[in-house]
Amino acid sequence: xxxxxxxxxxxxxxxxxxxxxxxxxxxxxxxxxxxxxxxxxxxxxxxxxxxxxxxxxxxxxxxxxxxxxxxxxxxxxxxxxxxxxxxxxxxxxxxxxxxxxxxxxxxxxxxxxxxxxxxxxxxxxxx
Length: 127
Prior knowledge:
By secondary structure, this protein is of the alpha+beta class. It has helices at 31-51, 74-87, 107-123, and strands at 58-62, 69-73, 104-106. It is built from three helices and three strands; from the N terminus they run αββαβα. The chain has a three-stranded mixed sheet.
């Protein structure tokens, strides 16, 4: 079993990554970039713990390349971040098939929700 999803463009002459040489290593992430990805992974754990019980399946990210929203469930986003950390470049991606936008929130929403929960907990008198 593969940790990565199958390449949807395998064998397709119109593959958008056709010009990339997989043997050509990416520049390694800087220490600051690695730290940012590690922080994103930590944040993702918190967001999932807080939001999944209310039916949120993952996060939506506006893709700068294709200018479309991409919907990522928790595990796929986590795998993508780990891949970026290990490989130094993001995976080739495509939009999810027919996702229900009602089940996804943005990073900013998730961050604000987590901040709100932390504020409420900080204002609650301890036992």
